[in-house]
Amino acid sequence: xxxxxxxxxxxxxxxxxxxxRNQAAPPxxxxxxxxxxxxxxxTLVFHYPNEHEPCIxxxxxxxTLLAYSQKCTHxxxxxxxxVAENQIGCPCHNGSFSLAEGRPLAGPxxxxxxxxxxxxRGDEIFATAVELRSI
Length: 135
Hints:
The chain is built from 1 helix and 10 strands. By secondary structure, the chain is α+β, with helices and mostly antiparallel strands. It has a single domain (about 30-130), classed as Rieske Iron-sulfur Protein. Residues about 1-5 have low confidence and may be disordered.
């Protein structure tokens, strides 16, 4: 019963934060990089929506760009993408997330990584929103 209550409280917190963000003006779009700056298989660390929120941009193939918060949803350790294994790993407690979806695969994390929505304008990549997800 305690685990269920904690999980419900965590879900409630995510819903509340989503509601709170929806009430506030969305953060402005922010240029992250140009397409030529991130090769296929490459990654890039950036900050969005402010300098206190580290994020990772990953280009697993020529047509795909993915971005997530770099903070593990377990205890906020910095996660590290592994494009070859299609995973994002958390070295603190051996957690891992799906590279394609950001959902937890192993270890203590129970929630997916917040996804950073991206938009490509010409040759430039912009972060446009943060999407918190509960499952």
